[in-house]
Design goal:
The chain is built from 9 helices and 7 strands; from the N terminus they run αααββαβββααααββα. The chain is of the alpha+beta class. It has 2 domains: 67 residues, Orthogonal Bundle (Arc Repressor Mutant, subunit A); 185 residues, Beta-Lactamase, CATH 3.30.450. A hairpin with a 4-residue loop joins β1 and β2.
Length: 272
């Protein structure tokens, strides 16, 4: 992909703010949005007011918070793949969550990231906190998140090259810098392939969860077809990473295999 123009930074920032508000769902404050997008607060306020003027957000004058309106749905009305996939795997993901007892997510490849299409967390299970939770529609970075790394390591070399090309042109996050270091990235891929799972990259874990949370992810595939990736997240103050790997990894792998086979046998409407 080549650009014949320079991307409009203000448009990028405005969309980043809209994504953050949608992720927080209701009563998003400037402070919460700032933590998610790392944009100066005065700029965030201007973007919020612009989005409110356009009808994509509604402002609560009492709390000075913002929430998405129904108009924001129009931005994704043409995308259907996630709904078809979600309908197929939702019952299995619910079963997985009940067995493992921690929040679980499944993502599919989308351009240069992983799109979370289904997430399950039972009432009463440990919460990661409002700004730490992820929801359906969240885009997890390919080289930072456990979902992204699990998919990236098990996809084809051809697709990996395409993803790296996109990331090098569009991403400036700390966790994306590994895309420019061929040898380091190769070692990372080989490590994940050998162990059969991925964790989050440290820079991303620090940014996203203040190092409070870890996630274990595995690829969702059947025979030669890779469909996405599946993860479980947990608080490191409750269970350390090594113990979580020993306890959860066999369960995660078993469920990923079940989902992969189920999708394979019922994927007439899906294209990967």
């Amino acid at each position: 992909m080549t650009n014949s123009y320079t991307p409009v930074k203000s448009a990028i920032r405005c969309l980043d703010v809209l994504v953050a508000v949608n992720r927080l769902e209701t009563n998003a404050t400037v402070g919460e949005i700032h933590r998610l997008v790392d944009i100066e607060k005065p700029t965030i306020v201007r973007m919020l007011e612009t989005l409110t003027f356009l009808g994509f957000l509604a402002k609560d004058e009492k709390t000075l918070s913002y929430a998405p309106t129904g108009k924001s749905l129009s931005l994704s009305a043409g995308y259907k793949k996630h709904k078809l996939f979600s309908a197929l795997i939702s019952p299995l993901l619910q079963e997985f969550n009940q067995i493992i007892g921690w929040p679980v997510n499944i993502g599919i490849f989308d351009y240069d990231s992983m799109l979370i299409i289904e997430t399950k967390k039972e009432s009463g299970q440990v919460s990661f906190g409002r700004t730490f939770e992820v929801g359906i529609g969240t885009r997890a970075p390919m080289l930072g998140s456990s979902l992204g790394l699990a998919y990236f390591a098990f996809t084809t070399e051809t697709e990996r090259k395409k993803i790296i090309s996109l990331i090098n042109k569009t991403k400036m996050d700390a966790w994306s810098l590994i895309a420019k270091d061929h040898n380091l990235l190769k070692k990372k891929i080989e490590q994940i392939q050998k162990q059969g799972y991925s964790l989050m990259q440290e820079d991303f874990a620090k940014f996203q969860y203040n190092n409070r949370v870890e996630c274990i992810a595995v690829p969702v595939k059947y025979m030669s077809t890779l469909y996405g990736s599946l993860n479980v997240g947990f608080l490191k103050t409750v269970i350390n990473t090594d113990a979580a790997i020993n306890k959860f990894l066999p369960i995660v792998k078993d469920m990923a295999n079940k989902i992969g086979e189920h999708v394979y046998r019922n994927n007439n409407q899906l294209t990967f």
